[in-house]
């Protein structure tokens, strides 16, 4: 089961012995409940997820987002799945932080293609203040185009989160990646608590959270369910929950253990995420190009949205 101490720090001003991190009006999920959902007959699970979705969202609406890598590779973290880690030879070339004008041009093209949200990603452990100033400029400029803004920059201090909020940032992406039990097998340079602390800083700054994980890295079904329990049991679950399929990257440790999830297992996971986090937008993000149109349709029925990647995106 998931240790409660992993979850408490996202809620501030409350004693850790109090149940501050319970989802949806005091609802606290346990893995046994997630396992019960996972074991339901497929038609029943899909019916239930559809009902939850229809009670909270327009059933036919598709929210579209576009992501741009504004600074690629050279990250000092040792995430065992990532092509941008400086620890591995993956064949992906490092780039400097893009100019604001180039980022805005990419955002304008994304808007013309139908995107309503634009996410800017930089391969950092945490941003330097001088780089954050440039990212804040990008956020404000993209916001002026009428797009929702999102960034993923690594770990943040409270001050940095506040600066991003003042620049007009809508969403901050910072994934938990996997379950607490499996986490140490894929990364050693950043703890899960580090990630939880950043989520706390972002939430306190008034920024919405985009937080999910990756499947297909050799984890068990139980790990996938524990990841959903971790997310759902936050006091306020993430407004956006990306489910990423790991893309094969030569040169990283995960490649020795990776196993693509069974297609129906993926749909089940999407449906369970929808039920456990009824107010969150569930997104199928990285790796979606590797799945068939038929599986995409089932995931949409299950009920997820889709991200699009353009520009200097990697790992898609």
TrEMBL record:
Keywords: 2Fe-2S, 4Fe-4S, Biotin biosynthesis, Iron, Iron-sulfur, Metal-binding, S-adenosyl-L-methionine, Transferase
Catalytic activity annotation: (4R,5S)-dethiobiotin + (sulfur carrier)-SH + 2 reduced [2Fe-2S]-[ferredoxin] + 2 S-adenosyl-L-methionine = (sulfur carrier)-H + biotin + 2 5'-deoxyadenosine + 2 L-methionine + 2 oxidized [2Fe-2S]-[ferredoxin]
Source taxon at top rank: Bacteria
Keyword Transferase attached: yes
Molecular function via GO: 2 iron, 2 sulfur cluster binding; 4 iron, 4 sulfur cluster binding; biotin synthase activity; iron ion binding
Cofactor: record remark: Binds 1 [4Fe-4S] cluster. The cluster is coordinated with 3 cysteines and an exchangeable S-adenosyl-L-methionine. Binds 1 [2Fe-2S] cluster. The cluster is coordinated with 3 cysteines and 1 arginine.
Protein name: Biotin synthase
Organism: Bradyrhizobium stylosanthis
Protein's gene: bioB
């Amino acid at each position: 089961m998931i240790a409660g101490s992993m979850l408490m720090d996202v809620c501030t001003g409350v004693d850790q012995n109090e149940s501050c991190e319970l989802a949806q009006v005091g609802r606290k999920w346990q893995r046994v409940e997630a396992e019960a959902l996972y074991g339901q007959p497929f038609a029943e699970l899909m019916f239930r997820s559809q009902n939850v979705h229809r009670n909270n969202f327009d059933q036919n609406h598709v929210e579209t987002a576009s992501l741009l890598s504004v600074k690629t590779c050279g990250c000092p973290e040792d995430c065992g799945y990532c092509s941008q880690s400086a620890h591995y030879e993956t064949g992906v070339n490092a780039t400097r932080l893009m100019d604001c004008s180039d980022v805005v041009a990419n955002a304008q093209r994304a808007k013309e293609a139908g995107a309503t949200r634009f996410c800017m990603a930089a391969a950092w452990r945490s941003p330097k203040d001088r780089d954050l100033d440039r990212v804040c400029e990008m956020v404000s400029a993209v916001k002026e185009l009428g797009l929702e803004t999102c960034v993923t920059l690594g770990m943040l201090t409270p001050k940095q989160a506040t600066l991003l909020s003042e620049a007009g940032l809508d969403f901050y992406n910072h994934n938990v990646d996997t379950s607490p039990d499996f986490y140490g097998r894929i990364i050693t340079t950043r703890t899960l608590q580090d990630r939880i602390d950043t989520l706390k800083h972002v939430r306190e700054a008034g920024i919405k959270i985009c937080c999910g994980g990756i499947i297909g890295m050799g984890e068990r079904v139980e790990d996938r369910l524990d990841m959903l329990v971790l997310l759902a049991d936050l006091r306020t679950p993430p407004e956006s929950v990306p489910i990423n399929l790991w893309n094969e990257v030569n040169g990283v440790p995960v490649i020795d253990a990776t196993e693509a999830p069974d297609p129906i297992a993926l749909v089940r996971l999407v449906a369970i995420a929808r039920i456990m986090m009824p107010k969150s937008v569930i997104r199928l993000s990285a790796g979606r190009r590797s799945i068939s149109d038929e599986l995409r349709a089932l995931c949409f029925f299950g009920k997820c949205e889709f991200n699009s990647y353009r520009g200097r995106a990697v790992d898609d």
